[in-house]
Protein 1
Amino acid sequence: MIRIRGARTNNLKDIDVDVPRGQVVVFVGLSGSGKSSLVFDTIAAEAGFQLTETFPPFTRNRLPKWTRPEVGQIEGLSPVVVIDQRRIGGNARSTVGTITDAWTYLRLLFSRVSTPHVGESNHFSFNDPAGMCPTCSGLGEVVASAVDRFLDLDKSLQDGAILLPGFGNGGYWYSLYADGTFDVDTPLRDWPKARRDALLYGTEPEGVVERFERIYLRTSDNLSDRKKETIARFTRSEVCPDCHGDRLNEASRTATVLGHTIGEMARMEISELADLVTDVTDASVAPVVAALKDRLDAMVTIGLGYLHLGRGTTTLSGGESQRIKTVKHLGSSLIEMLYVFDEPTVGLHPHDVSAMTTLLEQLRDKGNCVLVVEHDPAVMAVADQIIEIGPRAGDQGGELVFQGTFAELRRAKTPTATALAQQRPIKDQPRKPRGTVTIADATRNNLKNVTVDIPTGVMTVLTGVAGSGKSSLASELVAQHDAIVIDQKPVSTNRRSTPITYTGIATPIRKLFSRLNNVPASLFSANSSGACPDCDGLGIIYTDLAFMDGQETVCQTCGGRRFTPEVLSHKVDGLSIADVDDLTITDAIQRLPDRAITKALHHLESVGLGYLRLGQPLTTLSGGEAQRVKIAKELRETTGPTLYVLDEPTTGLHLRDIDTLLAVLDDLVQHGHTVVVIEHNLDVIRQADWLIDLGPGPGKHGGKILYQGHVAEIPDTATGQALTNR
Ligand code: ADP
Ligand code: ADP
Ligand code: ZN
Ligand code: ZN
């Protein structure tokens, strides 16, 4: 057992929990109930912290930093691996092949049996000078001038037709071109083409393109931020003209196995490659082929057979990244590890979920402990044990409300059990569209020249198995019609940004305190005489340490309360200005009697975020919470009818919170907007006014419209089956 005593992190109410080891344990509960606080911020954090402590300081500084949880005692931990939906790093050299080690085996295969025979396996590594393409240094792409962005053809030279910094009228380089060689008065559009070419590519004086590339691209100087910005604006990445994206040098990229180059294999769908490599019959490489096949099969099993090994990891979705990480750990021979998953079914069609649960069971059967935070009943069904935290969100949660099997949960009376018992019916009276917008001839990624009408003024749900082309179709909608995407990226990266700053209620709060206490409002501002003199109203003190990360400590003078005792003595409904930070949004609406405040907060409450605290940094929000904050902002600020696109808005939502979400989406439609949602959740699909189902398979086996119409009439596609089976 992992024995936890007195867990108090975030909203946890001093709880004791025994989590069995060697099992799949699924943690359930409403959003904000405290699941993550227990699983990630307590169990994983303590395991990570203790593991880090075993290393010398030099190593420790390079490891992820864990915040020690507020807990009495934890026993029975082991080294922890957190498999979350954070995307796999932004390194251009990282591909699906390198991250899963499949590429290592493929290289080995080529070094042993390719024709002509090349030699060492590092000759097939694009991260090794022996193998990399010299033109692009193994990146497969080169940075090239975006010449079409250099000139404003409607302007003359003296009006600033050359848009590059320093080339405009009065700029350092301007006189080179304006000293009589070129016409400075006529808009460039009216020049003969030969003159424009001379300006861009001439030799006397040196053309603008060559000069730009010399100053910005072929320089060994350290680039200033301004230069980097200029480069980003006036260049684009292009496929390497030498290796055409294969990343390897000539010898390595022309060698073949079974008649295919390694580049061709990197572009094949993984499921196809898995079939192909079984044709290698050379006994000397049998172990290599077996290891390669093992990795490829694991990816097919987990529903990623539609990817290719050459795919850059930065282009993967959150759910895809998470599944790749899982495959990587399946190959590990470490046992008795603690694996912690954050909603592994995100991005998975019900059809693909069983592949994921199989992986979880495999990890367990290898002798590991698998903890999963999940809302999907299909995952609960495979759990050896279920732990529900709740009963509600925030302050009204944080307790252990149930522990037992799925069958026992179904008979219990917890919020999760109740939600499981209810199934939302298919919407019987879909709303009538106002009109349509057309996505025409879409060929992005795997789309097979799709033309489709999206009804306006209603909610359309895009469905289909993972990799079928839903996101690609949504991107095409955005590109063709400028829709607004409401995604799950962080609302803010500034740790000082909170619901207070975000909704702009800081001033109304100060005015309220001033009005009800008859003192100046400025007293309650962090940059006034009312602020704590030692921390200047920050509540914390920074200490800069040479050679190390700076330290942050709570200010001793005010104890983090930021104001002088005199200011804190002024109250509204018994609350000081510092207490306001600890109020939840729901409480604040009731206790701060001011229209400006309640109006601004109402929108956050209406999207189900009433449990957030006013002073909670927005950087602590989950992806799903961030997305709902953005929906709230749109509800508050929109003007004319707008087209919104949402990618899996149920991520992180408990079955019951889905009611709130659906009400919010309804609200958007009620305001005259058009809502397009990519979604796997069957309750959301049933509530669609219009359904567009893509497929039939992933990757090149998908990209077609299988069905468009009302949910009730969907034929026997993967989505249709999922709707009838559950
Ligand atoms: P769940 O995982 O069940 O959705 P969480 O454990 O993330 O819930 O959150 C439980 C409560 O703790 C919520 O009210 C949430 O707003 C709050 N909370 C989470 N992280 C932090 C944090 N870093 N600081 C303050 N409050 C937090
Ligand atoms: P879905 O949203 O239905 O899961 P996607 O639209 O993300 O599917 O993907 C459809 C196909 O396009 C898949 O084969 C996927 O691997 C491919 N794809 C998606 N994004 C990219 C990209 N940036 N580069 C290359 N291929 C991509
Ligand atoms: Zn190249
Ligand atoms: Zn202070």
Protein 2
Amino acid sequence: MTARKTAIITGSNSGIGLGIAHALAAGGHDIVINSFTDRDEDHALAELIGKEHGVKALYIKADMSKPEECRTLVANTASTFGSVDILVNNAGIQHVASVEEFPVEKWDAIIAINLTSAFHTVAAAVPLMRAAGWGRIINIASAHGLRASPFKSAYVAAKHGIVGFTKAVALELAEQKITSNAICPGYVLTPLVEAQIPDQMKTHNMDRETVIREVMLDKQPTKQFVTTEQIGALAAFLCTDNAAQINGTTLSVDGGWTAE
Ligand code: NAD
């Protein structure tokens, strides 16, 4: 059992980030939930998770496309909780278009949120982890950090980039009891993915089960979605002392996608 730590999970009011927040809180860690909105329901969500698991949980608004807000998120967490021991870089967006028609502002936003934000949060958190003599950096990459698909050039570039960043940081910090790893999920059934199913059913004139199997899970050999609970459980394990020697690597949770 690892002692109680403080964790920031970026982009955690939905989907995979929320699953990780639940898993870390269930493991007894205090957590900071984050997104770019500042609604009552965001703060209520943090309060609910805190009560459910008997830990401190706070919602801090910060837009991960803005470097200074990435760094302020870390600073505000440290001033409130006294430390930042676990940093999960999860915030991410997607846009699908051919490379010659890819909107420049979408390219810039994907690189900023999916890649550059992690540089800023890690740079701000590492001095705190060094001082504490312990740390866990977990970057949520993707099967697209290891493989490409057409029409996702910005996303694939950002996710390959974060895999490289993860490894470089691991080597820099290897003797400090700070690990840096990337989780590479395949298709996870998050609200974002769920919302695409009706459109896909219309486009392909297929029922829900067929569209999931033939279109969405085409590359996922198990033909099943990964769950947010499965990603959360892996992140929680990476935060234990038993995971101290898992460092600078990618952990695929993709039903066999990248076995090909
Ligand atoms: P999601 O849309 O449910 O969650 C994305 C989260 O990021 C949300 O909480 C959103 O509010 C937040 N976010 C978006 N822009 C932000 C910004 N500018 N600042 C702060 N927060 C912001 O999507 P998800 O599927 O849970 O994706 C989470 C991560 O997992 C992403 O990095 C994504 O690339 C990755 N991923 C998802 C899948 C999948 O199949 N769902 C597969 C592989 C990797």
